[in-house]
Structures are given as C-alpha cells and as structure tokens.
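Annotated sample (chain length 96).
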Amino acid sequence: MPAALLATVVQAAPASEDANLSLLLTQLNILESTLKRAEAQASVAPQTRFFFDYPQAQADIHAMREGIRLYLTPSRAQPRTVATFPARYRTEAVPQ
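Output written by the structure step:
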C-alpha cells in the first residue's frame, strides 16, 4: 500500500469544534479537581517566600469554563469583551 494512501487511512475524521470544546469543558473540570487536591495537600511553611495562587488559578478556570459555555450556547449575536488572565500564580502572601 503506498505511504500516502496509508496516511489517509490512519487519520481519524476531525472532531467538530463543539465536540472539542465540550471535551475541553470536561478537561477543565478534571483540572479544577486536581487543583483543589493540590491546594488541600499544599504545605505552608513559615519560611516559604512564594506560594502558588490557587484562588487566581481557580478563577481563571472558572472564567474559561464560562466563556466556553457562553460560546456553545450564545444568548446574543454581538461580540463580547474578552477577559484577560494575569497568568501569575506565584504570590508572596500566605494563601487564605
């Protein structure tokens, strides 16, 4: 069998955008539960200067999830303002 033909046979049909975004929602749920476990197991030593900012990471996951849900089930046709993520998860403050 020619290599080009074999390559086309092996490739799966691409998933639809909705299917990929639905999969991403599932992965965000898994990520959120993993993040909660990590936060529960995190040790806060007094001499530690930097801490992972779990609340900020959880807020970002929530914002992504809501953005995807709104995209999948739009309530209006006009564009919305896009939220920015600080993407800074290291803090010098003790976690609350």
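Annotation: The helical segments are 3-10, 17-41, 54-72.
Annotation: The first helix runs from residue 3 to 10.
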